[in-house]
Amino acid sequence: MSVIVRIPTPLRAYAGGQGEVAVEAATVGEALAALAERHPQLRRHLYGDDGRLRNFVNVYRNEDDVRHLEGERTPVRAGDVLTIVPSIAGGAGAPAELSREELARYSRHIVMPEVGLEGQRRLKAASVLVVGAGGLGSPRALYLAAAGVGRLGLVDFDAVDVTNLQRQVLYGTSDVGRPKLEAAAARLRDVNPHVEVVPHPVRLTSENALEVLAPYDVVVDGTDNFPTRYLVNDACVLLGKPNVYGSIFRFEGQVSVFDARRGPCYRCLFREPPPPGLVPSCAEGGVLGVLPGIIGALQALEAIKLILGAGDPLVGRLLLFDALALRWRELRLRKDPACPVCGEQPTIRELIDYEAFCGVPSAAPGGAEEGVPEITAAELRRRLERGDRLTIVDVREPEEWAAGNLAEYGARLIPVGEFVERMHELDSAEEIVVHCRSGRRSAWAAEQLRAAGFRKVWNLKGGILAWEEEAEAAARG
Ligand SMILES: [Zn+2]
């Protein structure tokens, strides 16, 4: 019986770079043995010294985890696809060593056979990206840090405000006004100084998402807006990473683990977002303060299980929680063969414009009623040459600024992640032109300015890319 074995990215180096290998076998065990015979270097990654399949290597026959079938004795038929899923993507690296202090700190983990010394070392070797450091992000970040996840990335560009404190337990009253990531990093380093906290003070966009997500083993998403949720989903599918999903509204919460390598993704569940305005945000609809604590803690739990390879992850299952009735419901999710991103013939092969996809008229979550006026590169050049007094603000990151900027026209740098807290440095009496690389981040920045009462604000259409193109065209005459 000829079956296909799919090899995960981290193990392909040991299989001659191949992503799929066809072998003859009648059972899962025979297929893996045939694979190890053909690629001897793979053997030590699949089998322990006792000759048994390593417990953090999961094998799926088509869509089913073979642990729930007959394990290695599970029969296979011609055309079946076996997928090897290491418990974390990129997790083939050696577990990290623990210091004496860490052994003491994690002793309640280490005594449990399901975690043990090896599990704790795996946690230390692992990295998790927490998208959103708000209500859901607070318990996730606190528990993941306390549990000893080695590297914890946080994405958020907001500042702490007093309405956050009812549920965002990562912050205290003295943090009001501070950038969330600054306050969060300080708190998490106090919770566990052995954890490396990596702040990403950016708004995730199609341009930066792959770069931000790529270095992490597990992504934990709890964003409160649809464009970012679809963006994170698609980026995880494209990168082959598990996405621990959570969402909350008023008294209800949802949790699942989307891992397109072995189950459905968010788009398999919701092909398209609801029309803008139909589903109110937490700011409009409210949320019970304890609820994100419950849902966010479940997300932290699922992330830790994925790293340990322990238990049954919420892959292919959607957990619904009703806090008022105190009832849980579990729905079975199926992978949609026609899913546009993880299906058999995906039409989405790179990140798209998620604001447009979700019908959001501008880049801003809950943006102003009217769009921000744009200025073209040609018009900006004309006005600068005429000697008009314009304040140009570049909202890109310092590395992008260093690679080329408009400093000769007096431009200044305020990266988008610092924008809200630093916008007081700008003078609302001046005409302000904001720009980024392509115009999207700066559209958001411009809306923040307008929301703060600035009226003479322009967004440079097409960003510095359009400016450079225009300069080249002008030089050619
Ligand atoms: Zn899908």
List the helices and strands and how they pair.
Layout: E1 2-6, H1 9-12, E2 20-24, H2 28-38, H3 40-46, E3 57-61, E4 64-65, E5 81-86, H4 100-105, H5 107-110, H6 116-125, E6 127-131, H7 137-147, E7 151-155, H8 180-191, E8 196-200, H9 209-213, E9 218-221, H10 226-239, E10 243-249, E11 252-258, H11 266-269, H12 282-285, H13 291-308, E12 317-322, E13 327-332, H14 354-357, E14 374-375, H15 377-385, E15 390-394, H16 398-402, E16 412-413, H17 419-422, E17 431-435, H18 440-451, E18 457-460, H19 463-476
Parallel strand pairs: 1-5, 6-7, 6-9, 7-8, 9-10, 14-18, 15-16, 15-17, 17-18
Antiparallel strand pairs: 1-2, 3-4, 3-5, 10-11, 11-12, 12-13
The chain binds zinc ion.
Protein described:
- It is a single chain.
- The strands form three sheets. The protein has an eight-stranded mixed β-sheet, sandwiched between helices. A five-stranded mixed β-sheet has the order 2-1-5-3-4, with helices on one face.
- Helix 2 (28-38) crosses helix 3 (40-46) and helix 7 (137-147) runs parallel beside helix 13.
- The protein has helices spanning 9-12, 28-38, 40-46, 100-105, 107-110, 116-125, 137-147, 180-191, 209-213, 226-239, 266-269, 282-285, 291-308, 354-357, 377-385, 398-402, 419-422, 440-451, 463-476; strands at 2-6, 20-24, 57-61, 64-65, 81-86, 127-131, 151-155, 196-200, 218-221, 243-249, 252-258, 317-322, 327-332, 374-375, 390-394, 412-413, 431-435, 457-460.
- The longest helix has 18 residues, at 291-308.
- With 477 residues, the chain is of the alpha/beta class.
- The chain has three domains: 2-86, Ubiquitin-like (UB roll); 100-357, Rossmann fold (3-Layer(aba) Sandwich), CATH 3.40.50; 374-476, Oxidized Rhodanese, domain 1 (3-Layer(aba) Sandwich), CATH 3.40.250.10.
- The radius of gyration is 25 Å and the shape is globular.
- Bound molecules: zinc ion.
- Residues 260, 264-265, 267-268, 336, 339, 341-342 line the site of zinc ion.
